[in-house]
Amino acid sequence: MQPTGVPAGWEAYGDEKQERVGFFTDTSVCIGCKACEVACKEWNLVPEDGLVWTGESYDNTSTLGANSWRHVAFVEQRKPLHVPSEPEPGQTEDGGRGDGDALRWLMSSDVCKHCTHAACLDVCPTGSLFRTEFGTVVVQEDICNGCGYCVPACPFGVLDKRDIASDRPGSMGHKPDLPASLGTKEDGRVWKCTLCYDRLKGGHEPACAKACPTKSIQFGPLDELRERADARLAKLSDEGWNGAQLYGRDPGDGVGGFGAFFLLLDDPEVYGLPPDPVVTTKHVGAMWENMATAAAVLVVGVAAAFLGGRG
Amino acid sequence: MPSLGTSFGRGGATDFQQDLQNSDCIVIMGSNMAENHPVGFQWVMEARERGAKVIHVDPRFTRTSAMATKWVGIRAGSDIAFLGGIVNYILQNDLHFEEYVKHYTNAPVIIEDTYVDTEELDGLFAGWDPEEGKYDSSQWRYEGMETHGAAGQREEGFSPKGEQSGHGGHGGGLHHGEPPSEDPDLRHPRCVFQILKRHYQRYTPELVADTCGCSVEDFLYVAEALAQNSGRERTSAFCYAVGWTQHTVGVQYIRTAAIVQQLLGNIGRPGGGIVALRGHASIQGSTDIPTLFNILPGYLPMPHAEYYGGFDNFMAANTSPTGWWGHFKAYWVSLMKAYFGEHATEDNSWLFPRLPRIDEDNSAYWTLGQMLEGKVKGYVVAGENPVVGNANGKAHRLGLSKLDWLVVRDVVEIETASFWYDSPEIESGELKTGEIGTEVFFLPAATHTEKDGSFTNTQRLLQWHWQATEPKLDCRSELWFYFHLGRMIKQRLQDSEEERDALVKALRWEYPTHSQIQEPSAEAVLAEISGWEIGSGTFLDGYPKLRDDGSTACGCWIYSGVYKDGINQAARKRPHWEQTYVAPEWAWAWPDNRRILYNRASADPDGNPWSERKKFVWWNGEKWTGLDTPDFEETKPPDYVPPDGAEAEDAIAGDHPFVMQADGRSWLYVPQGLEDGPLPTHYEPHESPFGNTLYSQRANPRRQQNQLAEDPSNPVDGEPGAELYPYVVTTYRLTEHHTAGGMTRSVPYLAELQPAMFCEVSPELAAEAGLEHGGWATIYSARSAIEARVLVTDRIPPITVHGRTTHQVGLPYHWGSRLLSSGDSANDLMHMTLDPNVHIQEVKAATCGIRPGRRPRGKALPEFVAGIREQAHARRETAPKAEPADVRETTA
Amino acid sequence: MALAKLLASWPVVRQLQQGDPLGLGPAVQSRRSRSLVPRVDEAEHVVQSICPYCAVGCGQLVYVKDGEITHVEGDPASPISRGRLCPKGQATKSYAQSPLREYKVKYRRPYGNAWEELELDAAMEMIADRIVETRAATWQAKTEEGKPANRTMAIGNLGGATLDNEENYLIKKLLTALGIVQVENQARI
């Protein structure tokens, strides 16, 4: 295992290593507009995901998947937005805010967490999944062979294989123009949020964060985002918001903290998120380390034989 | 927007979106801003983060409510009762901003004793003519004022109305801009302030709660929040949209908010105002430079057939002696010079005798009625999908089937283009393709990325968009289509000696073109809109430069200056981080690039800021200065008193900020310009399950009804048969779609986000009607029946009104029979009874029935609808006439 | 040194060389990943535009390459939108490139059962003819009371709220000169 809070593979970039970046999604200002979902698809040419009406409030995306890298969850609750407080004289029970018996409609834009300890990356046998110089986790579409090992490894169910677009029920057969570099590669590969790896390389913020009308999705250096989130939580707590909590901010959690973490207004499971995610390959790291050492010994021996001979 | 126009002088939002961040309290009502203006909503969120109260008053708990600090649920169609209650609360508790009200509004003005209030006439104002079904508004005038007709030189019976009055209370006959009789102490029983007090005295918190279905506490919360957040140190803003306009008394909804904001002193000040949130990219622009029957660019009236007089009469009738409308002739003559060039001369009265004349109503719904009678032969539809977007889609489709020819221009094949082979009436057999004689041309349109041009946004800002790519194959801009169509028609008529063709021959129709397809230059058109001096060719820098002698040409006087110095001011794109938050160098706002209208009111009568916190525009001892272009003559001092005989803007005193009004004040009470009364009063919607507790006059007596067989009404409260349509129905948009869907149901990434037509109902209604979440429901009215998936939600709770509980059915209206996501159209259920001022349909509150399951198919559908309707109407006919009010209600 | 190059590209060697023994980072970065360039940086030109949907008036940047839009995103310079867009505005490229977009004129003759093809020029001539003929046949010089009318009540025009000011200007100007008074748009809706 790497030391807590530092993603494996990232240090190896040496001089090319960039500041670790991520998302802080502040759901207390999310208006549920889904601009993030569309911005992601427009930029990353993600196919349309089927025209299925779900009846799950205003959510017709339902889950993250190969064809939905952002997903806005909608939770309708009979719960006041603020914690009922002791009424002062002359005030109503909710401290004069007037929302004592109000409804709440929680909205939250979910995304790949870009875990500090990412099981998907650990189990990928092809080297398709990798840690970028920005500390993010990306599937390389030119490497992935669709083996699918990463799919069950993810504690959040983010990783998903893409079917052929026209085979999906409800699909209108819309296929994006795939980049030429992919050639004729059959799909069936695994796709997920790249944190707009190509945009990062060009110095642009990810498409979803750029579009977000209320800056519910904030992009930036992870350390800075964590500070911002702490300040935000303190403010909301002061204001008596009901259930405000950070999710995935703590580097000491089961996945070493998320690269994309959240401020929620209720417990994670209310939003369909695992309350206490743990990296599924907790013990696999050491195993790979041993195997790698064995392989290295072999390689060094062979190489020495060849290269030494030419010295 | 006659409501804002008659109240303040200009028919546009008084504030700009970014300024909402400075509000201390924002009331969003008649709007679902977070869903329908999500990016503008960021400024509301900024205010909320700064501690402002954000209040959403709406029948549904929406994504806007979810962000608000307070949501108050009310019954659709009851907003005037709610707002009137706020007016009463302010007046009963002396919470009005006294100095503002005394100096800047018409509160002190004494009204003629001919005026009688609805409180005395049981829901009617003075001047009601039951024969004509109209008001004689001369009975509402200022005391001692001359009227148009009395001056002898006016066109008989002429009075500005509709959009035309939407731009400035003309209020002719004022001497030196001052009303003849005033009581500065606001005590005279016939002064506006006292009339207002009496008019709203019964709008108590209890009456509001009983009428709107909210609690007394929730109502008081809103009233108190507004009062506490207004005054010298604080300001409150209102945001509204079509949730207010689309009613048979819609103009008066907005008027009520205008009264609240005047009493609280929130107009013309930062963080204050009334922000009209408009729904299309250039819907403000299409009123300013109208594609509307009754006005010409800049809210100049189209000449009327019935009230025809000569040119001089027309000028006299429209020229106000005082205020900026005093220069009416300069605006008019400059427009005629832009239209007809050297052919328009003083000798031929600038071609006035040849201009076409309009009738009382030639609006879209009137045209549909003519179409159904076979009187309309040809119809061109450009960028609109009326069979989905307008009330009573079926009537529209039947209308189109009676045309000789139809041209539809759009980017995709919308339902309006396909009515003849793919529509509910084809399915039901009411229309048969082989029997429809309409010749249909579908012409593919260019998108905004394929052409240059300007949109006028919701805050009166003209913003230029540049062409990015060439339109492909047959795709063309509207600019191309109408320019070349005009060119071809002119060619055909160039040798005609017919009288009727003289105006076409005189038309100035030369614009430079570019690219292979001969696209006309949009900038050349913008230059003509802005105007120039004919002799020198100098571009005008604003409307004060316009002349009435034919020496200037200007296509829209309120846009004059948008091409000043020969530079496209709308295309200015200086980044916001290089400017103040007002951002005066980003694009160009009418008039004169002002961002907050009437901003002289941000200073006190002496010209000093009301407070440091709300400083915006002030008098520095020599001139008006501040963060914005002052909406006042730059060097007119605050203590300026107009001399005797002063005219036009010279007749407006230095402490009167509403410079478009003849008396320089905002109008709490509107003595002329509105069809249905000088003050807003609560009426029930045309279709409502409830009676009016205030008066026996149930609905707006002046509402515009029709006699079309295709547009029957549901029986209403008190009428037998009403129980067959027991629920309130309201329509709306979703973030994920746009209006009638042509621009979103065609886009995979949007269609998938809201892929099906659905209805929103409460768990209580679901239980009562046997509806199952996720299943299907059939919703019906006397017009039609549609089906929708059922979304059961607490967000549209039952309401208790007059002690009776009923339910509301929510319907998004984006769907039609085609494109990637298709479904039944909510508007098929809606009727075509209209607001009398602006001819807008009432789709925000009507009645319906609902039952589980899918609707009948084929010919069983019209049979099902007719079956219930006949049952209802049979009950009505066998019962004694219940509502005496009916007798005096009118049809247009 | 073909062999050395081959060897150096062997992942395990890369893993060791780059201090990435587990092959989780740079060692497994593909050539494509290494050379990725965001397509906004490859655009031939960028055009400042305004969103065509609601009336908020958000600024848009339209990126173009080879005569096609490659991306649309918010214009950060706009004081109204500050670079942000809603789902509709953000879908502008997909709207302009909709799979349902029509590129050719379609014509349906009276009582016809199907669309037919028609050249754009021919369609324009036919529409000009229809207007001239209908107008002549239905011209009202005077009202029934004998007052001047100067109009035809048999032709109407609908649309404008989604169009440019310049387009609305030409519509109203042309139709007023033609005596067509039934000019309406969605401002009422």
Distance between the termini of chain C: 74 Å
Number of strands of chain A: 10
Number of helices of chain C: 7
Give the helices and strands of chain A as they follow along the chain.
Answer: EHEEHEEHEEHHEHEEH
Low-confidence stretches of chain C: none
Q: Give the overall pLDDT of chain A as a whole number.
A: 85
Describe the structure in brief.
The complex is a heterotrimer of chains A (311), B (892) and C (189). Chain A has helices at residues 35-44, 119-123, 150-153, 197-201, 207-211, 222-238, 284-310, and strands spanning 21-26, 70-77, 104-111, 129-131, 137-139, 160-161, 190-191, 217-221, 245-247, 260-264.
Fold and architecture overview:
The complex is a heterotrimer of chains A (311), B (892) and C (189). Chain A is built from 7 helices and 10 strands. With 311 residues, chain A is of the alpha+beta class. With 892 residues, chain B is an alpha/beta fold. In chain B, helix 1 runs parallel beside helix 12 and helix 9 crosses helix 10 (216-228). Residues 147-158, 166-173 and 880-892 of chain B have low confidence and may be disordered. The radius of gyration of chain C is 29 Å and the shape is elongated. Chain C has helices spanning 2-9, 11-17, 31-34, 87-90, 92-96, 120-138, 165-178, and strands at residues 45-50, 59-65, 68-74, 106-108, 116-117, 139-142, 148-158, 180-184. Chain C is an alpha+beta fold. In chain C, the strands form 3 sheets. A 3-stranded antiparallel β-sheet of chain C has the order 1-2-3. In chain C, helix 7 links the parallel strand 7 and strand 8 (180-184). The longest helix of chain C is centred in the last third of the chain and has 19 residues, at 120-138. In chain C, 57% of the residues are buried. Chains in contact: A-B, A-C, B-C. At the B-C interface, helix 13, helix 16, strand 10, strand 11 and strand 12 of B face strand 1, strand 2, strand 3, helix 4 and helix 5 of C. Strand 12 of chain B pairs antiparallel with strand 4 of chain C, so a sheet runs across the interface.
